[in-house]
Structures are given as structure tokens and as C-alpha cells.
Amino acid sequence: MDFSSINPALLIASLMVSATPILLAAIGEAVVEKSGVLNLGVEGMMIVGAVVGFIIAVNTDAPLLGFICAAIVSGIFSMIFGILTQYLKSNQVATGLGLTLVGLGLSALLGRPYEGMKSPTLKALDIPFLGDIPVLGKMLFSHDLMIYFSVFIVAMVWWFLKFTHAGMVLRAVGENHDAAHALGYKVVRVRMLAIMFGGATSGLGGAYISLARVPQWTEGMTAGAGWIALAIVVFASWRPWRVLFGAYIFGGVTVLQLNLQAAGASIPVEYLSMSPYLITIVVLVIISSRGNQGAPASLGRPFHASS
Amino acid sequence: MYIKSVIAGAIASVGIAAAALAADVKVGFVYVGPVGDYGWTYEHDQGRLAVEKHFGDKVETVYQELVPEGADSERVMTQMALQGADLIFTTSFGYMEPTINVAEKFPNVKFEHATGYMRADNVSTYSARFYEGRAIQGHIAGKMTKTNKVGYIGSFPIPEVVRGINSAFIHARKVNPDVEFNIVWIYTWFDPAKEADAATALIEQGCDVVLQHTDSTAPQAAAEKAGGVITFGQASDMAMFKPTPRVSSIIDDWAPYYIARTQAVLDGTWTSTDTWDGIGPGMVGIGEITSAVPADVKAEALAMKDAIASGDYHPFTGPINKQDGSVWLAAGETADDGTLLGMNFYVEGIKGDVPQ
């Protein structure tokens, strides 16, 4: 066994790339669930973002524009779910699953002419000074814009939920929509905005897969990342920094186990393969075992203004 | 109102019956990936299209893509059988037991399972000798690696994949005694993100050749991004990555087989068989060896291809020892198909264990 071939700097750099799609999707879903809505359509919104981002980036040769369009289109796409569940009072679980199916089908249709094409990818930012630090520069300061942006979004969500009035309204809506309604807050409007935000970040996450991590378009390429994101939100007790932590652990163990296999570690491969799921759940459960679990009390419950 | 709907229903069912009558034979295909993976499933679908083109109106084809291995696939096969399919091709190893289960319930429907070993009166098996192509890849890999580290992305540790690893390794070692194989198992046939991660991990550890036994082109894209790495197209040509990183490929050509089997059903001569064809009969093709490969290496690879095709050379020809050093094949002895079909051991020189 020779682990000297595993370079920690490269490992951490790969970890961040591997975790970012899940992180983006999960942080959006955390906000959606904080507002009391369970949207199981994350996978569908991600893949729509992946295909839209790819199509735009290929046609305009501007990956950044691809990301922006992915966020906008996935945000609009999530409105299907929003209108059905918030205005037409459909069942959230069924509608969310439906959104995933529609997203997978729609993306396959849109993406068919783009299969096998190559996309322009985001260039790594050339950060002066910081990028030149040995080891640390390679590890943390040699990434593309989206990686830093994803961390920035997590910080913004944390700040928004904890310190702003609007964030408290959103949390109130998620905890007890009847009380929030009685206080005069627009429950449905708040939830629609949250759903749209969740759609936009899921779209960014999907586009990150098709434009940076892989980078190409293949049908069904998100391959379950949306479901992982949903699980991470729950195990992270709906807290932004824990979502980031969970996503990085998952990404980290995924990359680490592949590296261990490649280095010929004498751990049975079956254990290595299950380790990302197992370790992420165990770590987040241990963290969350103390105190309030933080599940929004109105999560998944339909809201009728009349009641 | 009631009468109206009855009439409508009757008209609809006549329409369906007419549609069913229009084609003599209905052929179903069950795919594990999307038809646009440009790998394994893509080639099966090319075979399906060839069947449609060959028979025209006489044959109708249906397919279902992205069918998970396991219970879901049974549902899909059952549905195809109920919809009147006469012949169903199930194109992934994990469909083996579901195919047998469904075949029991529909004795009049013919089933064909790819890459498996369980047969019944109405279940045939077919596969290609991919290991013949792996031998050629191993030769090129051994000649071209500068770091002497070859990465191999495995899907599931089943005989088909283990056989490919052994074949590639034997031929890489033959031309380069210092070469090492780093093998990563990812337990999926199709997950572009995971495949890309695996390729990246191998490349970061110094592998400058990456072989894959998974279905998407993601490892090719990862190799292209990294630069200075060569790859081989898997199951399909993956020609968009020419001339590098993709320097050659194994192409599965299922079309002749699918046409022959459909013809057998049309003629009423279909029987349960076991087909395992290689480069010779054309089921395995070797994609263009690009200019990135030195001319002498290319000539050697093509010579090996011809020798395998004519039957002069078997990729598993002794002396070959098993990983523990015990003798598997004595000098000049070639492996029998039974051992190859159940291969669950590495040959001497490969590090690590086959996951059990």
C-alpha cells in the first residue's frame, strides 16, 4: 500500500468540485423546507439546469451565461410545482416526484441534439497572491467562480435566515403557517419565492455538473444527486453551515474512497463504496443528536387561508 | 353517453389490433442507460435501428431506456410481453434473474439476455468477447504509458469485467514489465459524475492511461481536461474524443445478431442458444487507432487484431499464473470458455483483490 501518491492538496480541490452540485441543490432545498414546503423535485430541477446551462454555453460560448440561464429556467420550472401545490393545493410529495419525472423527460428531449458535444468550461480564477501560496493556493484558491459563489450563497442564506426580518417571516411561515397568516404575512407568496430560490440554486447545481464537473451533456447525468441533496438537508437539520459541511463530507469521502481504491488500500471495496453515504449520515446524525432537530413544524402540510 | 364510450372503446381496440397486425413481429429492448450515452446502450439502440431498417414494416420495435437492474426491470419486461412483444432483448448483466422470472410467466415470448449465463427454453444468451479488444488496448497502453501506471475504472466485479482487466493487464505487462494497474470500482454502469471523479482520481495519482468499463464518455472528458492522458472508447467508438485522449476503441456491433434473431422468430426457427462472438465474426470491432499512437505500435496492434480474428492467437494463452502464483495455464495452453465465463480471479502481477 502506498498512500504517498494521494496528494492532499489535489484531494481537497477535487472534493470541492465533487461536492458543489449537491451543495447548491441542498442549500436551496433547505430554504424551501424552512418555509414549510417539501419539494421532492430537486433531481428534476437539477437536470433541467444541467441541460439548459449546457445548451446556452455551447451556443454562446459563454459558460457564465449558461449558469445564469440555468438558474432562471430552473426557477421558472419550479414554479410549476409552486403553482400546483400553493394555489391548486395539490399534494406536495406527489407533485415533487412528478416534477422530477417531467424534468428528466424534458431534459432528455431538449438535450438530444447536444449529446456528444463538448462545452466551454469555466476557467479557474487566477487569484493573484493567494493562488501562489504553496499547497494552500492549489487547495483553496485555484477554483472556478461557481465554487466560491456556492459558499457565498450558503453564507447569505445563513445571514438571511438568522438576521433579517424577511428570513424570520420565512421561518415563521414554515413553523406555523396559520399563525403567520393571522399576523398578516403572505404565506403563499413567501413560499413561492422560496420555491423559486430552491429551483434556481438546483439549476446552478445541475449546470455545474454539465459545465464543470463532467463537463458534457448526457441524458440522466445527475444520476441521483438531487436525492442525496434532499437527504443532506434533513441530516443537516436544515442549518446552512451544516448543509455545507454535509455536502463536503459526502464529496470528500466520495473522492477519498476513489483515491484509496486507486492507491490500492487493503480495505474491501464494498466498504469504501458505501462509505460516502454511511459516513455522511453518521457524522450528521451525531452532530444533530444534541438538542433541537429543527424540522419546520409545517413542513409538507398544505395551507388553506380559510382555516 | 355509455354507448358512445363503448363505441369509442371498440374503435380504439380495433385500431390497436390493426396496428398490431401491421407488423408480423414485435421486438422489445430493455436498456440500462439512455440511448444517448454514446457507449453501451447507444450501440444496442443502433442494433435496434438496424433491425427496423432491415425488416421495414414487417417488424415493430419498442424500447425502454434507463431501466434499473432488479425488480423494476421485471415490471418493464412484463409490460412489454403484455403489449405483445414476441422477442425481448434485455441488455444488461443485472437483468439476468428478472429475465428468467418473466420468461417463466410468458412461455410463448422469446427472451435474449446479454452477457449473462442463465438460459431457459425461451431464453437465449449472447455476448461479445470484449476481452479480445482489451488485449489490443493493453498492448497499446503498455507501450504508451510513461508513468507505468494504468488506471482502470471497473463497474461491477463480475466475470465480464474481471476478464477485461486480466486481458488488458497480461498484454500490457508483456510489452512493459514495469506497468502497474490501479483499479477503481464504482458499482454503477452509468453515472457520468462518478465516472469523471474516478478518472480524475486515477489521473491525479499519476495514471497516464485510463481504461473504462463503464458506459458514458465522462472519463474521456476528464482525461481531455487533464491533458497528457490517453483513453479508449468503450462499447462505442466515442469518436468525438479523437485523436486524443481517445486513441482507439472497442465497438460492439449487435446489429447482425439482432437481425438474425429477429429473422429466426419470423421464420419460426428460433431456439434457445448461447452466442459468444468476438473480433472474427465482427461482433467486436476495433475503432480507428489514431495518429497519437506511434506507427510501430499501431502496426503491432493491428497484427494482433488480425491474429485474434483468424483464430491464430487467443488472448489467454499460457504461461499465465493466477495472482497467488499458482499455475493457471501452462505454456501454449489456452483458456476454455467455461473458466473465462466464470472468471473471478486476477492474474499474477495485479495488485488488490477482486471484490467478492
Question: Could you please describe the fold and organization of this structure?
Answer:
The complex is a heterodimer of chains A (307) and B (356). Chain A has 307 residues and is mainly alpha-helical. Chain A has one domain (3-226). Chain A has twelve helices and no strands. Chain A is globular and about 65 Å long. The relative contact order of chain A is 0.22. Chain B has 356 residues and is of the alpha/beta class. Chain B has two domains: 2-129 and 254-277, Rossmann fold, CATH 3.40.50.2300; 130-252 and 283-341, 3-Layer(aba) Sandwich (Rossmann fold). Chain B is built from eleven helices and 14 strands. A six-stranded parallel β-sheet of chain B has the order 2-1-3-4-5-11, with helices on both faces. Chain B has a six-stranded mixed β-sheet with strand order 7-6-8-9-10-12, sandwiched between helices. In chain B, α5 packs parallel to α6 (159-175). Chain B is globular. Classes of the chains: A mainly alpha (307), B alpha/beta (356). The interface between A and B is large, with 42 and 44 residues.
Search tags:
heterodimer; A: 307 residues; mainly alpha; 12 helices; B: 356 residues; alpha/beta; Rossmann fold; six-stranded mixed β-sheet; 11 helices
A few lines on this structure:
By secondary structure, chain A is mainly α.
What is the C-alpha radius of gyration of chain A, as a whole number of Å? 20 Å
Q: Bin the helical content of chain B.
A: 40-55%
Low-confidence stretches of chain B: 8-20
Distance between the termini of chain A: 65 Å
What's the topology here?
The complex is a heterodimer of chains A (307) and B (356).
Chain A lengths: L7 H27 L7 H19 L2 H25 L4 H20 L24 H5 L4 H19 L1 H11 L1 H6 L4 H27 L11 H11 L4 H23 L6 H20 L19
Helix pairs in contact in A: 1-6, 1-9, 1-10, 1-11, 2-3, 2-4, 2-9, 2-10, 3-4, 3-9, 6-7, 6-11, 10-11, 11-12
Chain B lengths: L1 H21 L2 E6 L9 H16 L3 E6 L6 H12 L4 E4 L5 H10 L4 E5 L8 E6 L1 H15 L4 E6 L4 H17 L4 E6 L6 H13 L4 E4 L5 H9 L3 E4 L12 E7 L2 H13 L6 E4 L6 E4 L7 H16 L9 E2 L5 E3 L7 H5 L15
Parallel strand pairs in B: 1-2, 1-3, 3-4, 4-5, 5-11, 6-7, 6-8, 8-9, 9-10
Antiparallel strand pairs in B: 10-12, 13-14
Helix pairs in contact in B: 2-9, 3-4, 5-6, 5-10, 7-8
